[in-house]
Design a protein that fits this description.
seven-stranded mixed β-sheet, Rossmann fold, two-stranded antiparallel sheet, binds S-adenosylmethionine, globular
Length: 212
Amino acid sequence: MMENNSNHYYSKFPDANVKIHTISESLRRHLYIFKTITGVFSYKRLDLGTKVFIENIYIPEETSNLLDLGCGYGPIGIVLSYESPQSSVYLIDINKRAVWCTRENVKLNLQERKKNIYSLSGNYFEPIKNKHLKFDGIYMNPPLRQGRKEFLKVMHDISSYLKTNGSFQFVIKKKMGAAYILKYFKDTFPDENIEIICKRSGYWVFKCFHQL
Ligand SMILES: C[S@@+](CC[C@H](N)C(=O)[O-])C[C@H]1O[C@@H](n2cnc3c(N)ncnc32)[C@H](O)[C@@H]1O
């Protein structure tokens, strides 16, 4: 696990003064309101990579188990849940403020009708380690500012949490090494499929299949 430097959005307990912001954003033709706080990733506006990702990801139509890994204030997982209301959606982040925002945003956007959404705080898969969960989809806008090493490590754990034919979808800024990640994936997991769903505004959206 990385060091807990409290000046970063990926700190467990950020120390930035608390200031609440509100973001409104239309995603997949639905308007969402997100409450955010200083110390949380992209708290002033929806990150462009997140927007490109949400607009282009594949969301299964049938009832599924879905995971937003590193959820921040929750935009990806909340859209997954809105678009696939029958599915169970898990959102995990290490940053306690992010998880607080996510819980608020679930209430704001999904109201009482949502019982199958779980916002958990902890280091990647650690909060669900003993729950024997497998997912149809794992979605991630990875924290690459911490360096690639951490994300490559997560990639190795993904397959233990995917169902057969489940997918891992993620977004990488081209300048942050999207081509490197693609090559790394192909070299390291030669039996897995990886495709680029879209390249837009300097971001590449990837989808990898797990096929056993
Ligand atoms: C690039 S941000 C994306 C946030 C959100 N998904 C979005 O698109 O707005 C990456 C997120 O990963 C979280 N993160 C970093 N390290 C983590 C870890 N070890 N376990 C869980 N989440 C982590 C950060 O706190 C941050 O919220």
